[in-house]
Every structure is written in C-alpha cells, then in structure tokens.
Amino acid sequence: MEDHLEDFKEQPEVEEDEEFSEFDKLPFPPPRFRSTHLHIQRSNVCSRAYFVVVMVFFHVYILNVIALLLYVHYNNGPEDLMPGEVASSSAITDGGSPLPGSTAPASADHLDDYSQSFSLPRIEGIRVGHVQRISSISDKTFEMKTLSLKPLIFEIPGFLSEEECRVVVQLAQLKGLMETHTTGPVQGYVESNQLSLSTEEVFGLLDLNQDGLLQKQEIVSHSRSRDGTWLSADSLRQILITLEARPTGTLTLEDFKRIYAESQSTEQRIGKLTSKYKQRNKNTWLYQSSGSHHVLQTLKKRVISLTRLPSALVELSEPLQVIRYEPGDYSDAHYDSSPPNPETFCAHTRLASNASSLKEVSCRYLTVQFYLSSMEDGGETTFPVADNRTYDEEGLVQDGIDLTDTQQTCHRGNLRVKPTVGTALLWYNHLSDGKGWMGELDEYSLRGDCPVKRGLKWVASSWVNVDPDHLQQARYQRLVVQRHQAKSGLDDYYQPLSHNNLHQDL
C-alpha cells in the first residue's frame, strides 16, 4: 500500500516533466511558470523601493515647507498671520490692518503668545559716520548715516522729495495750525509754587469723606490727570508706599505733613530742570488712515520700511504732527517719551489701562522727523548731551547756564543738525530691554529746536508708540480689534484699521 502511494505522489512530477518536455519541442515554447513567478517578484521589489524613496523625499519636502512657514511667522510678526489665526493672535493684514476674528476670551497665556509673536528690531549704528544703504517700498535706495550712538541717531538725506514736502505743508495749512506757547511742566512735573496751598488745605481737599484720615483711593482720585498732577509719580509712589505700610492703611494729618514735606523737597530737586520747559510754534495733526492723502499714506509706509517694525505698531500710533517755526520760535530741550513707571500708563493704550493708574504719559519708542523746508539761519535740531561720556541731570547746568535752554545755549549742544528739505532724522528714545522689547528711557535722547533767525522752519514728526509692558500692548491691540468688530462687523473685513480712525474715541 505504501508503494502505491509513493507511485501516486511521484506520478504528477513525471507528468509535469513530460508536459514541459513536450512544450519545449514546440516552435515557440511558452515561458515556464517558475520563471514568470520570479520576474513578478523582482518587479514588486523594485516598485516598493521606488515607493519608499518617493515617500522619503515627499516627507522631507513637507518638513521644509513647515520650517519655512514657521520661519516667516516668527520673523514677520502678527501682521502676516493667516485669518484663521486671528482668534488667538489678533492678526494684522499685510497692510497693517487687524483682521476681525473670534472674540474668545483673552487669557494670560494667549496674551503672552501674542506678545511674543513680534519684537522690536533696532538698526545698528556701528560707529559715528558709518553709512549704510537702505531700500524703500518703491525700491529706491537711500544712504543712512549714523550721527550718534548715545542716543542712536540716523540721518537720511532725500527721504522725501521736494514735491512731497510741499504737499504735506499745504495739507497742514489747509487743516489749520494752532499756536503752541508753553511755559510749563513736562512729564507730569510741576513747580512747587504752582500749588499755593498749605499742607492742611491739601489734606482737607484730599479727605473726601472728611473723616480726618486719608485712604489710598482718596489720594489716587486726585492724581489721574496728564498735566495737572499735583505730585510727580516718584513722590506719589513714596506717599502710597508709606500709606500701605501702615497697619490701618490710612494717614493722619501729622503723618501726611511729614511725608508731604519730604515729597515736596524731592519734587523741587527732580523737577528743577524739567519743569521749566518752554516752546513757541504752531502745529497741527494729520491723520494717515486709508482715506487720507496718498502722500501721507506713502509716508507711513516708508516709516514702516525704515524702522523695520511690525506694521501694527505704526498703524496704531499717533498721527503725523506738522510744526511751523517762525522767526524767534523755538523749543527747549526735552524728551519725546517718558520713563517706564508702574504708577503711570501710556496715553496710546489707555483703552486697556488699569483704572487705578495714577498718570497718563507719552510712550514713544522712536521718533522719525522730516524736514519739510531748508533753513537760511537758525532752527537747528539740537541734542545737548549726545554721545556724552556720562549723563547727570545736574550737569546740565554749567556755570549757571542751563543747557536745556535753547534760546541761550543752543550753540553749546553736542550735536546740531541743520534742516535740509527732504531729509529725515531717526532716533531711538528708549534703550532695548535685552529681550527684544522697549527698555528704559535713553537719557541722552534729550533734544530741542534752536530759535529760528530767518525764514520758516517746517518739520513733521512721526512717533511709534509702544507700551513698555508688552502684555499691555498686546491687550490694547486685541481690544482695538474687538472694538472694530463691534463698529463695522465682518462687512469691513478687509478695510484698513488705524489708530487714526479711533483717535477721538480712544
């Protein structure tokens, strides 16, 4: 039985061999099955290898695209984000207009992410006299010369054409100029003799509920004005620190007398120079929103290109100020911005400011000044302490002469720039905080305008407003977007939004 089974198993093999032998005798024998099977197997191996190579290259390509998008996102800031990202970042279009999006509640994490999505680049000065080439939006090349390193000051000749200067002057004349004749405080300082009240009278005025004790809210309620603050922020902080250290959180008349006397002596020492700021000129403000003259809009775009700052910051900054100086007009040396202070809030972000803030100040990261006319005699822009080795406020008075008094000491300024039509000056009012944001006020940025001796001096100033608190700046821009949504809705999705449009409302 086993022999028969073995014969039966061997039989197919014999038949198969005979069958192949017969096929081999044909004129065109068909390919053997085993050979065909091997051919298909090799083809599959090649196809799989080719597929693996293609997929590897495809994934590498996708990773490169993602890396490129991330690079563009973190280098260009929120103005280049896609509309879908508005909900978390308050995105801004390429033209600088915030895109309305979701009004989801803004958490601290969202604000922090938004604030980190852009920074404040600074132009390197290299050294005094260094010249670098810059390009504008019209691909025109300018030469920018470093005039000072403390503060960083740059001069750009021919930044405006004479025709553009003429148009800005005419627009200012058409708008109408208001006379500015100031002899008073800047940065919130007041002279001690301006408040001709006794300590008892001051205490009685502050004591709103007449209980003989002063609470924090009673003091703060009289200290929220921009120009009429009865004490500087430093002196006011000194009083509040003392008040909060008291177990009862209140001050008696005797406590107030002692603290108020100390604050007044500090006030006289700190405000001795800054309280005497004087100027005489005529000025007006020109808005640069989408409905303004095309020259004004071009000017704003050039500022964005020149400063290399996120367009949102420039869009939401102050309007262009145009000033005319007639013979005899001047402005004493002063700071365009204010030092960061926890007891103050920036004027441009007051929409998002804390209601308990004590005082409103100007926060101007940098200044771009355009000369709209050339001067025959006088009218220079002076930086009294530019590139000084050291700075000391008391050192501004030398031999009884006040260097901030441009009427008397303009010729003694370290740096004086003669106005030439079309030339632009750029200088930074603040240092960097080392993290890509605005830091302390640069004390060397003190500047003034020498008296005009002959001719008319026309200048325009463009300030870029930045809050030293980056979260506050982010919160403000988010609120502006929400306000724009409430006013215009999604129908104006692509309409440019500017601080100029909200100037009166904010």
UniProtKB/TrEMBL annotation:
Regions annotated as coiled coil: none
One cellular component term from this protein's GO annotations in UniProt: endoplasmic reticulum
SUPFAM superfamilies xref list: EF-hand (SSF47473)
Region (Disordered): 1-23, 85-106
Cofactor: L-ascorbate
Domain (Fe2OG dioxygenase): residue spans on this chain: 316-466
Protein name stated in the entry: Zgc:158254
Species of the source: Neogobius melanostomus
